[in-house]
Amino acid sequence: MRVRKKAGTTHMDRRSNRRRLHSRPDNGIYDRLILSGMDIPESVDTQKKAQENHSKMAGTPVPSLILSLSVSTIFTMLIATSYNIVDTYFVSDLGESSVAAVGIMFSVMALIQAVGYTWGMGAGSEIARLLGKQKKREAEQTLATALAGGILSGAVMAVIFAVFREDVVRLLGATDTSLAPAGQYGIYIMLAAPVMCGAYVLNNALRAEGQPYLALLGILAGGLSNALFDYILVRVLGLGIAGAGIATLAGQGISLAIMYICVRSRCSVVRLHISDLCSFRYGVRIVRTGLPSFLRQGLMCFAAVMISRSCRQYGDGAMAGITVANKIFAVTFAVLVGYGQGFAPVCGFAYGAGLESRVKRSLRFTMITAVIFMCAMGAATWVWASGLAGVFLRDGGKQSLQLAALSLRAHAISMPFAAVCLVTGMYYQALGAYGKATLISALRQGVCFIPLVFILPRMYGVDGVAFVQAAADVLAGIVSAFYLLYTNEK
Description:
With about 500 residues, the chain is an all-alpha fold. It is built from 20 helices and no strands. Helix content is about 85%, strand content about 0%.
């Protein structure tokens, strides 16, 4: 390829370029272009970024690399979780029925996340491994396929909800008093479904290439916008629970727009090419890789529905109390998931590059630190359970407050076990061990949860509903630990 010399290149330009060269390792054509004072073609500049990224992911010490990547992913998960929590806070003055309605629609948001993470985590795992093998073009095609698939899947969900809105809301566990507000809030959440799915794909792709702060920029802007719009639409303009739904739609739109600009610009190593959007060449591989994420998030949706339906016979107060407890636990769990998502690309990249010892070090470090963190958070949650519940149940009755505190203390005991289960699942997913990852992902809110959601409420009534998820986490953590030790020994 012929490279034209920049018009008006001066002696000072060449001196400046030589200074740039001496601060970098030798990289062939890139350095020769710097010395000559010529323009650097986009393809060469992108290749340079890919080489630097490869060096960082393969050579940076494991603890510091995981921690640096996790900072942005933790904030990303916290902000993503904050949408529903912020909505709950702003509608809490509207009564228990509105709080229960937002809780009911949490299961719908979990379903959207399940679809978005299927394409996003699937693409992220594939991109990390492809970059480890230095197959950049295939990584770009994978990104385009995942983005198109995510947006189309979200659009299909939005259409289904619009047609069967009342039936869906009743199926999710709405009572007669929470049916109307759940429908008003839900229609805007479902309009945001294609936007949210697209944002999850771009977010995971940016993290997989080792640029999590670009993903954080988009997520942070969307989360702050959601909080601002919540205040304006709910408190100032008095639009009620519908205003909270509109705020979520607007925030997600801003987030997607910013990340789209990043993957279309030279900021990103793996760039989005519009011509690749119509190709589904890597669709099956992406979905297969992302299936554990779909199962994990899909079972979260199923668990939320089963909890809501179990609470329905006890009224909006019980539903509001358990909803609030699960939202507070979701904040801590979001930190854990964000930490795991910082670990996954490090492990996947090392596996793709054939660095076996680095894979083992990343797993050991992540597992130990995650368990220690969740033990600390469990102790804090136990101590401040009643105060935390009161923040979201200012107008709630005694039953909802007591039930929320009881559920939070049960979660406090189970937190270290949840850490073992999640890190184990992400480890197998990062390696591309689809069967093992899917099995582990099915434990927390599937294999262990389903029997307990029928047994405990029959034995202990509404208190049993509060114990279900915590008990399932304990069982899932124990099974995951034994399975990981057994498979690693083999």
